[in-house]
């Protein structure tokens, strides 16, 4: 097909049977991603960035009226790169150490759509990826392409105030064993009622689901727990999401009481991944 320019802002494609005409804009009007004033730049392996995004981005909100939740907080402090996502009911926080250090703390909010696209583009290789930030956009340089996105202009919630402190009931569980138990119990869950009731006693965790038809499923697993008995309920889908995100073999769950949020982390003490889930009413 032959395109011919007609005037300053239109193209037409003539043929023996049809005529197509469309309007265009000058290439000078295309956004200039290279013209942004980038104030910070870091370099890290693709695999590290992909893992950081995969292990936190699932907690982002989707089409929330609080637009600043429909994205991922990317924060730089010293030599630490941190990502935080929350939808108001759960929170995921991840961090890693970078080679370069900044003197002032800085943060941006990357839109959900850009995070999902980055998750598709990144791979598990050790090839470096360069990330540059400005006040209005982010640029990610991969070996074979450059990716840019506008940022969300808003104030992300103070996530540090959400992290539970002082919990006195600590459980260590095999991640895969717990995930399988919750998955089996979830078979009887309905779309409207996805709660799972967790009962803790010495050395034992019991997960119970009761649906609207009063059908029930109960799963028991052995855990490391020596605290007082506790009964607490959560959205089962939220627990499964974070268990799918944690790569470690064991998880630590810290509780205060049935009305307080739970803090869930890998069982080691590095605290590079932290997950907070709000309880549901019993």
What topology emerges from the helices and strands here?
Elements (H helix, E strand, L loop, with lengths): L3 E2 L4 E5 L4 E5 L16 E6 H9 L16 E7 L2 E7 L3 E8 L8 E6 H10 L6 E6 L3 E6 L2 E6 L18 E6 H11 L9 E7 L2 E7 L5 E7 L7 E6 H10 L4 E6 L6 E5 L6 E5 L5
Antiparallel strand pairs: 1-2, 2-3, 4-9, 5-6, 5-8, 6-7, 7-19, 9-10, 10-11, 12-17, 13-14, 13-16, 14-15, 17-18, 18-19
Detailed description of the structure:
It is found in: Cytoplasm. Belongs to the beta sliding clamp family. With 282 residues, this protein is mainly beta. It has 2 domains: 37-160, DNA Polymerase III, subunit A, domain 2 (DNA Polymerase III, Chain A, domain 2), CATH 3.10.150; 164-277, Roll (DNA Polymerase III, Chain A, domain 2). The chain contains 4 helices and 19 strands. It has helices spanning 46-54, 112-121, 175-185, 236-245; strands at 4-5, 10-14, 19-23, 40-45, 71-77, 80-86, 90-97, 106-111, 128-133, 137-142, 145-150, 169-174, 195-201, 204-210, 216-222, 230-235, 250-255, 262-266, 273-277. The strands form 4 sheets. The chain has an 8-stranded antiparallel sheet with strand order 8-5-6-7-19-18-17-12. The longest helix is centred in the middle third of the chain and has 11 residues, at 175-185. The mean pLDDT is 88.
């Amino acid at each position: 097909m032959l395109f011919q320019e007609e005037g300053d802002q239109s193209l037409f494609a003539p043929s023996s049977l049809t005529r197509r005409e469309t309007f265009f804009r000058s290439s000078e009007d295309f956004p200039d991603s290279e013209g942004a004033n980038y104030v910070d730049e870091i370099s890290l392996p693709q695999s590290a960035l992909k893992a950081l995004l995969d292990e936190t981005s699932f907690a982002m909100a989707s089409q929330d009226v609080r637009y600043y939740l429909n994205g991922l907080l990317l924060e730089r402090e010293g030599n630490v790169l941190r990502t935080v996502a929350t939808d108001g009911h759960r929170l995921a926080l991840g961090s890693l150490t970078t080679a370069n250090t900044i003197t002032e703390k800085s943060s941006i909010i990357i839109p959900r759509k850009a995070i999902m696209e980055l998750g598709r583009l990144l791979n598990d290789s050790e090839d470096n990826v360069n990330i540059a930030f400005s006040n209005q956009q982010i640029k990610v340089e991969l070996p074979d392409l450059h990716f840019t996105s506008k940022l969300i202009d808003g104030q992300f919630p103070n996530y540090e105030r959400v992290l539970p402190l002082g919990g006195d009931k600590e459980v260590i569980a095999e991640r895969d064993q717990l995930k399988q138990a919750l998955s089996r119990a979830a078979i009887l869950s309905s779309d409207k009622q996805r709660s799972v009731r967790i009962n803790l006693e010495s050395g034992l965790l019991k997960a119970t689901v009761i649906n609207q038809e009063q059908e029930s499923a109960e799963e028991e697993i052995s855990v490391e727990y020596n605290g007082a008995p506790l009964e607490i309920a959560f959205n089962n889908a939220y627990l499964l999401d974070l268990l799918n995100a944690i790569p470690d073999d064991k998880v630590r769950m810290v509780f205060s009481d049935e009305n307080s949020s739970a803090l869930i982390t890998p069982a080691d003490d590095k605290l590079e991944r932290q997950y907070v889930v709000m309880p549901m009413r019993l």
